[in-house]
């Protein structure tokens, strides 16, 4: 079972979530894919993800940007595989500049990102990976939002795919769908 976690202000309607869900349905694995809308409050997002992991037997968590920060915490906490796509490395620092009113990208609904949310991010920081080999880092050097080099250093010892060019959306996403499914232990369907 794969749990996909979107980034800050994004949602399950994102290209990455939709493309992976579609590929899994094509392989007859649609029932092994979850991509929820995460709440704005990090503590609530983590609580939702923890509940899904327990109820559905998730073995791999995939996270993009802020979702990658969440995925790191969850993979470490539950001993899962983690795929991190242009992840936020120190989310409580990089997102502090966004404190204030925000909008969900796909629904337009407003929410407030607060200093309390920043503290909730700080509370789930994982300073050192217990088993970096359980992680796969996917970054593009052209990421205009986050410095990919921070992730390369942070996930030392993990499988790493570092690609020239691209941007924060991870432009080569469709090319890595099958390898991600294989990394998740679902290769029998490929």
Order of helices and strands: EHEHEHEHEEHEHEH
CATH architecture: 3-Layer(aba) Sandwich
Please tally the helical runs, counting DSSP H or I stretches of 4 or more residues.
7
Quantity of strands, as a count: 8
Shape: globular
Task: Report Rg.
Answer: 15 Å
CATH topology name:
Rossmann fold
Describe this structure in words.
There is one protein chain. The protein contains 7 helices and 8 strands; from the N terminus they run E-H-E-H-E-H-E-H-E-E-H-E-H-E-H. The chain has a 6-stranded parallel sheet, sandwiched between helices. A two-stranded antiparallel ribbon has the order 5-6. The mean pLDDT is 94.
Summarize the helices and strands and which ones pair or pack.
Layout: E1 2-5, H1 15-26, E2 33-34, H2 42-56, E3 60-64, H3 66-78, E4 81-85, H4 91-94, E5 100-103, E6 110-113, H5 115-123, E7 135-140, H6 148-154, E8 159-163, H7 177-183
Parallel strand pairs: 1-2, 1-3, 3-4, 4-7, 7-8
Antiparallel strand pairs: 5-6
In short:
This protein has helices spanning 15-26, 42-56, 66-78, 91-94, 115-123, 148-154, 177-183, and strands at 2-5, 33-34, 60-64, 81-85, 100-103, 110-113, 135-140, 159-163.
Quick tags:
alpha/beta, Rossmann fold, 8 strands, globular, two-stranded antiparallel sheet
